[in-house]
Amino acid sequence: MSTNGILGTGIGEGLLLKPVKYEWAYELYNQAVANTWFPNEVQLGEDLGDFAKMTAEERHALTFLMSYFNPNELLVNKALAFGVYPYVSSAECHLYLAKQMWEEANHCMAFEYVLETFPIDRAQAYESHLSVPSMAAKEEFEIRFIKRMTEQTLDITATEGKRDFVRNLVAYNVILEGIWFYSGFMVALSFRQRNLLRNFGSLIEWIVRDESLHLKFGLNLILTVLEENPDLQTPEFAAEIRQLVLDGVEMEERYNRDLLPNGILGLNADYINTYVRYLADRRLEELGFEPAYGVANPAKWMATANDTLQLVNFFESTNTSYEVNAQA
Q: What keywords does the record list, in alphabetical order (predicted)?
């Protein structure tokens, strides 16, 4: 079954790589391969002295981050394996998605490495993603969209099926990876800003480098699907997508108040949530919307990780300039 574009479910499709139709996907695959790394390349044990000096609030924040990141890297893989890979037809997209799935597995192992190295209560860390309401709400949100792709019948040639495909991409790629993960990365890297957990910071930086490519791929895929399918280009669908992003911001703001209930040196929930709103504005602009919050970036030291592509109108069907600069 094919839609004669990037979408399609025919097993016989996408078996020839050349000539490459979607150069942006092929470029991102090559960059992802060049970025390959392994967790044990970082000497994480050198950070144990810092961990011993950290306050209870700082240790809580680190444990909270691990509670969220660890299972959600695997959740992203489910979104990719069941909600994206089966519905795209191009070989270059399949190549990139295969590498991305390996990267998510590698990130999971990186967070396992953190849990194995630092004296973190593993049971507590695993339990929190279900027992902390603000964290569980984020997971339930993602699962709701993945279920549409996996547990219900999806006709990718029908308008509603294509909408569900885009909704899933927005939920896992723009919101989960592009806002929620980046918010957590900022908190994780803030320790290094205070000369703490420097090797842990390097590990996170490598993950951010991967995630920036994931975000570029997802945004390019969304924009390509919209360009190739004019039936999706309605004000109503645009408003729905925009509202999804705003809903994601509200969930993240509640989560961050649980992450840092009392704040730590140089960082509190209000500061993180300002950054979340800044990120949301960038993602909205990358999808062609007007910013919703109009806030300045409070963490300018994260600037190189925040912005991904040139601005492209969400419903500009004539713009085919989706290639990205995938250089590190």
A: Deoxyribonucleotide synthesis, Iron, Membrane, Metal-binding, Oxidoreductase, Transmembrane, Transmembrane helix
